Amino acid sequence: MAGRKILLVEGVDDEHVLKHVCGTRRLQKLDEIKSQEGVDQLLENFPVRLKESDLEAVGVVIDADTDLAARWQALHDRLVQAGYQDVPTDPDPTGTILEPPPNALLPRVGVWIMPDNKTNGILEDFLRFLVPDGSRLFEHAESSVDAIPEGERRFEDAAKPKALIHTWLSWQKEPGKPLGTAITARYLDSGVAQVDTLVNWLNRLFFS
User: Fold this and answer.
1) What is d(CA 128, CA 137) in angstroms, rounded to the nearest whole number?
2) For residue 70, with 0-12 CB atoms within 10 Å meaning exposed, 13-18 middle and 19 or more buried, which class applies?
3) pLDDT class for 104, splitting at 50, 70, 90?
4) Beta-bridge partners for 35
5) CA-CA distance, 181 to 37, in Å (whole number)?
6) What is the CA radius of gyration of the chain?
7) Which residues contact 47 (CB under 8 A, 6 or more apart)?
8) Is 196 strand, coil or helix?
9) What is the 3-state secondary structure (H, E, C) of 3-64?
10) SS3 sequence, 140-189?
11) Which among 48, 88, 97, 168 could disulfide-bond with 141, CB atoms 3.0 to 4.6 Å apart, if both were Cys?
């Protein structure tokens, strides 16, 4: 019997976005797509989950945040410690996939670092790719967020992508849809090249 295929993600928004991407792009069903309730918990759980005996493949989707190299190094160290060989010094821009070492009871493993394995950022930076090209409404959202009066802007710079995408979604026909539902509602376009790359990584990791 084939082993289980599981995808570990940082938070609930990541979980819903990945589930809706898989649904709209008609991927085969995974056994588990589950939030780990934060990056620290994800990094702690990752090596533990690798040791489960019934796994065929494990994927990790994690934000680069402000330091892609540091995020990759944290995963790199855990993979080497678990026994994986030839772990690259940098993440693959199309999504990293490692085969299990010979004679080891380890699963195939894959890592996707949001937004695109190449730049700093978070899930919402990836979703920016899905905003229709030339959206005047998104340009207006950017102008509005940038025009927040001094002293009234309560979020840090790193959270600006969240503010932008949620502002834009709050002005749609049905305001305030969650990020994943916004994909199914086609406010966000899951047919773009960046989603193709993510879907190709999922297919190579779990179904090739």
Assistant:
1) 13
2) exposed
3) confident
4) 9
5) 20
6) 18
7) 78, 81, 82
8) helix
9) CEEEEEECCHHHHHHHHHHHHHCCCCCCCEEEECCCHHHHHHHHHHHHCCCCEEEEEEEEEC
10) HHHHHHHCCCCCCCCCCHHHHHHHHHHHHHCCCCCCCCCHHHHHHCCCCC
11) 168
Question: Token pair for residue 109?
Answer: 């493993």
Mean pLDDT of the chain: 96
Contact 79, 107 (CB under 8 A): no
Using 50, 70 and 90 to split pLDDT, how confident is the model at 124?
Answer: very high
At 33-91, the pLDDT tens digits run: 999 999 999 999 999 999 998 999 999 999 999 999 999 999 999 999 999 999 999 99
0.90 exceeded by pTM: yes
Tokens representing 176 are: 């305030």
- What is the rounded distance in angstroms from the CA atom of residue 32 to the CA atom of residue 135? 34
**Residue 208 to residue 200: CA distance in whole angstroms:** 10
Length of the chain: 208
Q: In the structure encoding, which two tokens stand for residue 147, read together?
A: 């025009």
Query: What is the model's pLDDT at position 1?
Result: 55
User: Would the pLDDT of 183 be above 80?
Assistant: yes
